[in-house]
Each structure stands twice: as C-alpha cells, then as structure tokens.
Write a structure and sequence with these properties.
- It is a single chain.
- With 173 residues, this protein is α+β, with helices and mostly antiparallel strands.
- The chain is built from 5 helices and 6 strands; from the N terminus they run αββαβαβαββα.
- It has helices at residues 2-13, 68-76, 97-114, 129-136, 162-172; strands at residues 36-41, 47-55, 81-89, 119-124, 139-147, 153-161.
- Strands 1-2-3-4-6-5 form a 6-stranded mixed β-sheet.
- A hairpin with a 5-residue loop joins strand 5 (139-147) and strand 6.
- The longest helix is centred in the middle third of the chain and has 18 residues, at 97-114.
- The protein starts with a helix and ends with a helix.
- 32% of the residues are buried.
- The mean pLDDT is 89.
Length: 173
C-alpha cells in the first residue's frame, strides 16, 4: 500500500494521475499474484522510492497495449519478459543515483536470478530516455506514443537484455 501510495502522490503531482485514482495507483495487472511492488525506505522508515515489476502472463504485459508487435517479437525469440513501471521517488531522493542503482540492482537480482527473465521492458517519458540508455544500458524498442496509463503522456518503450547486462556487471566488477 505504501509503494502504491508513493506512486500515486508522485504521478499525481506530475499530472499522470487524478483524484479518481483513490490515493493509490493500481491497474488490473497489479492484482496478479506474481506482481512485485518494491518500496525503498529512508533511514527513518519513510517511503523513498518505488518500482513495480509485472512478469509475463497469458493476459500480457501492461506495455503490450501500446507495443504489441515489439513485445511479441521478443517472445517469438524465446524471451522471458518482465516489465518495470511506476518508478517514483520521493522529492527528497529525486536526484539520488544511489537509490536508482539499488532499485535497479533489486530488479535485476529478482527478475534475472529468481525469475530467470531475459528482458526487462519499461515505458518511459522521452525526456528520461537518454538517462536510461546512457546510465542503465537500455535500448529503444518502440517509438513515442501517448500512454493512457499516465493520462496520455508520451512514452517510449525501452528494453534491457538482462543476460547481456549480467555479463557487463561481471566484467566490470
């Protein structure tokens, strides 16, 4: 509840969620038993950041509503897919690269090591694409389009090959 509440507060402040969203930001995909909402807390126990993971499912991934061909192509190549979304940080941690790194590390460990996923997908605002590509090694998979999950804000689909990322981490460390 705290993770979904933080997502709601941040997305509402950005204009991506409205009053009708009942103080938490959830979708039907959040009701799946394998959905994982992560909450990072600060030393005082406050909500610092959150991200949600949706694992591939017969009903599909949330990003498939916008990018069905791109997601299908990864599946057709034998990919085990996971989507990360609803990434949000408390204002006190907005520029914390440490928080982003820790959340990404948790995503990687759980998605790659526990769930054996091969590709991480996410839809992001175009102004964040360069950061995801430069710092986090994502690549573009789908072009810009309006995303109804965030009140029609423009999104792009990015992907990270988790196996390649694991090799990069091993060689760097």
């Amino acid at each position: 509840e705290r993770a979904y509440g933080l997502g709601y507060r941040i997305y509402r402040a950005l204009g991506y969620a409205g009053h009708e969203d009942h103080r938490v930001l959830v979708t039907p995909s959040d009701a799946r038993p394998d959905t994982l909402a992560l909450l990072a807390t600060d030393p005082g126990g406050g909500a610092a950041g959150t991200v949600t993971l949706w694992f591939d499912h017969p009903e599909g991934l949330p990003c498939e509503a916008l990018y069905p061909r791109e997601v299908a192509a990864l599946r057709d190549d034998g990919g085990r897919l996971v989507e990360a979304g609803r990434f949000a940080t408390n204002d006190d941690y907005r520029n914390s690269t440490m928080l982003v790194a820790r959340l990404l590390n948790l995503i990687f460990l759980y998605a790659c090591r526990v769930q054996a996923c091969s590709h991480l997908l996410c839809t992001v605002n175009p102004r964040h694409v360069a950061f995801y590509m430069r710092k986090l090694h994502f690549r573009r998979l789908g072009g810009e389009c309006p995303c109804p999950r965030v009140k029609g804000a423009i999104a792009e689909l990015l992907t990270l090959n988790l196996r390649d990322y694991a090799r990069e981490v091993r060689s760097a460390h």
